[in-house]
Amino acid sequence: NAGVTQTPKFRILKIGQSMTLQCTQDMNHNYMYWYRQDPGMGLKLIYYSVGAGITDKGEVPNGYNVSRSTTEDFPLRLELAAPSQTSVYFCASSYKGEGAEQFFGPGTRLTVL
Amino acid sequence: GQSLEQPSEVTAVEGAIVQMNCTYQTSGFYGLSWYQQHDGGAPTFLSYNALDGLEETGRFSSFLSRSDSYGYLLLQELQMKDSASYFCAVRRAGGGNKLTFGTGTQLKVEL
Question: What is the 3-state secondary structure (H, E, C) of B8-21?
């Protein structure tokens, strides 16, 4: 199993550009998450999904959108990139169980200039 | 709202024992998780406590006191490879096993 994979690993965007961060998991997990992590800080939840077709906002959803058309894929869309979106983005997935371990992808380092 | 407090840095010597604390303020608390993150890497799961008491997994132990809104992670027989950031995270009310993370404690293990 590859676990959780993310592409791209690195990206530089200009202000106002848009892009999609890809996330795929092959563990048949119901739950998937997108986090951002700023330098020296903890992770903040952007959006999450409890199953295909169901998504909901986390703590910091502004400027982002998500979709979940399949169990495996959970892309994150950035519209009109801003310097404040410079961060490392992690995708994660987990089973439904109480306190279930979240498995993280390797992350995407995004810089907006 | 939710808030978690962790010391920003802890230094210890190889072979020693270190305790990293986490205090939280939250409504709808379900449990406390701990994750390890090496520089440039992804977080990896260490433990989850839903009930008061100590959970042990090898060299790692995690403790929770719900009445004190407090938990800690204990690492024994420290190794150089344990140098990393350690995050506590509260499992939040509502669906989806959502987590709110603290800002992390950076552990430096010295010879």
Answer: CEEEEECCCCEEEE
| Burial readout A42-79 (b: 16 or more C-beta within 10 A, e: otherwise) | bbbbbbbbbebeebeebbebeebebbbeebbebbbebe
Q: A85 by DSSP, 3-state: which?
A: helix
- Give the end-to-end CA distance of chain B in Å, rounded to a whole number: 41
Q: Which residues does B28 contact at the CB level (< 8 Å), separation at least 6?
A: B92, B93, B94
Assign residue A26 a region: left if phi > 0, alpha if psi is -120 to 50, beta otherwise? alpha
How does pLDDT run across A99-108, given as a tens digit for each residue? Answer: 789 999 999 9
Please answer yes or no on whether A102 and B96 come within 8 Å at the CB atom: no
Q: State the pLDDT at residue B26.
A: 86
In A, what residues contact B, Cβ < 8 A? Answer: 31, 33, 35, 40-45, 48-50, 56, 58-59, 90, 94, 96-107
B63 forms beta bridges with B54, B72
